[in-house]
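Lay summary. Proteins are chains of building blocks that fold into shapes, and those shapes determine what they do. In this project we predict the shape from the chain. Here is one chain we studied, written as its sequence of building blocks.
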Amino acid sequence: MSPFLIIALLTFLAGILAVVGIYSICSDLFLRDQTRVGARVDEEFRKRQREQAKKSTLFKNLDRLTTEAPEGFDKEERSGLGHRFEALVEQSGLNLSPGRLLTIMAVAGLAPGALGALLLHNLLVGGVFALVGVAAPLLYVSYKRNARLNKLLSQLPDAFDLMARVIRAGQTTSQALLAVVDEFDRPLSAEVGYCYEQQNLGLPPDVAYRDLARRTGLLEIKIFVLGLLVQQQTGGNLAELLEKLAGVVRERFRLRGKIKTLTAEGRIQAAILLAMPPFVFVLMWLLNPRYGQVLIDHYSLLVGTAVWEVIGALWIRKIINFDF
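And here is the predicted shape, written in a compact code that computers can read:
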């Protein structure tokens, strides 16, 4: 072997060793602190969950909830508008209360409504601005709720598989829940961690599981909770149940994605058709204000258009959205 080739190999090995040494030093200096920070954040997050669990209203009404049947899972769907509004705020994951959201909606509606009425000297325009201002915070909360539930649903199959492996290893259900908290990101870790802390504070497991199903509102979690309750009462292979449930959730998630793909064209057409009348009106108002003023003077036409827009939106939504 030539001396030149030996020198080249030694230089290459020296470069590799230098890179490994630099990475090791950087890991000791920076990654160690990052690990400590991550552990500290997790500790603070669990402490906050424990404090929230202590304030739960379930502890004040425990006798009624412990005797509640599993059929009560769909109570939320049968409840009134107020309960649905509270569920919307809770499932959004935002640091909001229903009262605070109502206050934000009132301020967001009154401010632009009053400003539009004063500047344009037209109560109808002010009313339109007020409606838009009131609807904007509610739409944002609804968007955050849907995004959060979709992410939660995508995490469920892997979480059920992990719980099945933990239980097959001889651990308890509570330890399986703790494994999900440690291994997964929010929102699943937050919801499962809250359920785990409720049990640590003395809440019966069946009540904590039912509250988990109520908070999330997902059918897949309701099936999971119902399976846990049945397994606690009658026994059975919980690991096998979780594995089958993970397969069912994966198939439902795949089917939901396929449905979204097939209905994408209809949703885009609906958005274009619903946005076209307001867009044309604004464009006409900017290009020819006198012509637009005719519609404002005959506000009954605008009211009728808005009513039919709402009816059309609900009709299209009913066509492209369905349960399965």
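What the prediction tells us: The chain is about 85% helix and 0% strand.
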